[in-house]
Amino acid sequence: MAKTSVIIVGTGGMARHHMSVMVTMANTHICGLVEVSEAQRQMTRDLFESKGKKCPAFYNTIGELLKAQGAPDASFINTPHKFHLENARDCLKAGMDVLLEKPMVINASEANRLIKIRDQSKKLLVVAFPGSLSPAVKKAKQMISSGKLGRVTSVSAYVHQHWKAATTGQWRQDPVISGGGFLFDTGSHMVNTVVDLIDQDVVQVCALMDNCGTPVDINSTVSGRFRDGAMFSLAAAGDSMHCTSEVTVIGDRGILQTGIWGERLLFKPIKDSGFNDVKYPKSKGVWEQFLKVRAGKQVNPCPPEVGLRFARLMDMIRKSDSTKATVKAR
User: Fold this and answer.
1) Phi/psi at 263 (5° precision)
2) Is there a smaller number of Cβ atoms within 10 Å at the N or the C end of the chain?
């Protein structure tokens, strides 16, 4: 695979997690970094030094970087949620393919705007939902669609994390910047993976959210129904311990289990009393999958249309909580 030049927009903790893998890949050249915080810049310099690599130049804005370097092949956007739309717009219009951290944008209106920008630019846009980009979830979807589980009747999922205390005083608890709380942040993986596995629109939602004294939701419970009648239940507990998750897909001929990031896959057919591990290809993460899509080696598993589907569902969840009523898709 040819070497891809990429800029990283936003170099916070999640970006550094991705970069720690990217700097080890021979087919990747990180050529510039956009970051306004000196503290984040220094931690990024430390990361490159720890890997024995030279840290690329920093810039305050995408425009400043483009003026100095010109447009690279791609950008990987890791900024706070509020800025995703404008960052992706600037990169797409500059001729870059874009990998965009989740959640794609704040709401369905922004999602529709971004899809139009993608269409006009004729560039690649992949949303970095690890579940959708996971080989385990891809394998699970194949099993479901091929009838391994029989008729899927329901899906249940949970995620819990020490999120409330860990994000106190940070942008993630500012609803204007974050767009939501625990369900929209870590919980977005759960919401997206559940819907992606079933690969259908949600037609009915009932949700309850508790801010637990903060400006954003911390604990949430969501139940709903897919178009074909299968039901789902989601539990997000942001005032908990370490981060753990599970997704269980229940059919009348088998049961499948995975995590919200697609980090494992187990299956129990009707004839067995226990779960068995399912083999699937290993992955270095979302950047590796993005490169495969960009090289034409696989179909984009998480285009902005997936981001729109997620945004529409989150809009329904918020409306159900605010009105204390069941919300049906229009």
Assistant:
1) -90, 0
2) C
